[in-house]
Design brief:
This protein is an alpha/beta fold. It contains eight helices and 15 strands.
Length: about 230
């Protein structure tokens, strides 16, 4: 059973600030992916999973960056599914941002254009990544740092980004409020996914806020106690 969400929580989810760190959430493309813009008081920012596909979504993202006077340092893809990467080309072209991705995501990433064509979605070919991430890497921007966890199971190349200072983790489609990522797509594996969740995410403090690839945030503690897929 999913946790009920109040209107106050829903509004707060769109613009989450703790100390000097801000997380702005956009819901983009037909799959309603959560695209996150992380920034701090220095004005430096990163984008996690740019799913902007429609012109008005590009405009929303651009307007927010201009309004907040942000300097976007790079883009991170948590995994190579189309809803999480289709904004990469726009970000490279309009923001001149390098693209970071795990190397094991590359095979599926290179098929993005073909998958979109099957769904009737027209996109430019995805740009080649500028950097390959791996387990244990530390990503920095402004005065912030994020640790990379390699968390396959939903797809090869899936990663999570952990902010130990602010007790936040960005999990892509590995974990959801009351659910977990699907494993019936290419390179998916239920046993591998559960191993990733138990070894990389459930070891985090209960109060850690989980920013999912779709829908609402949750916490590690809540999922540990209530997620039926974890507790089976």
């Amino acid at each position: 059973m999913k946790r009920k969400v109040s209107l106050k929580e829903l509004i707060a989810f769109q613009h989450y600030t703790i100390e000097e760190m801000t997380v702005k959430t956009f819901h983009f493309n037909p799959f309603q992916v959560n695209t996150y813009v992380l920034h701090d008081d220095t004005g430096e920012a990163i984008i996690v999973d740019p799913g902007n596909y429609y012109a008005d979504e590009n405009e929303q993202l651009q307007n927010y960056i201009v309004k907040e006077n942000l300097a976007v340092q790079y883009v991170v893809n948590t995994h190579p599914h189309i809803d999480h990467v289709i904004g990469n080309s726009w970000c490279l072209k309009h923001l001149d941002t390098p693209i970071y991705i795990h190397e094991k995501a590359l095979e599926l990433y290179h098929q993005t254009h073909s998958y979109c064509a099957v769904l009737g979605m027209e996109i430019e070919p995805c740009p080649e990544p500028s950097k390959f991430l791996q387990e244990g890497d530390i990503l920095t921007f402004g005065t912030q740092s994020l640790q990379v966890f390699y968390t396959p199971g939903h797809a090869d190349g899936s990663i999570c980004l952990y902010d130990e200072k602010h007790k936040m983790v960005f999990v892509g489609d590995v974990l959801f409020a009351g659910s977990v990522g699907r494993t019936d797509l290419p390179t998916g594996s239920s046993p591998v996914l559960m191993q990733s969740i138990r070894e990389k995410l459930l070891t985090l403090p209960d109060e850690t806020t989980v920013f999912c690839g779709h829908e609402m945030t949750t916490t590690i503690g809540y999922e540990r106690q209530n997620n039926p897929f974890i507790n089976n």
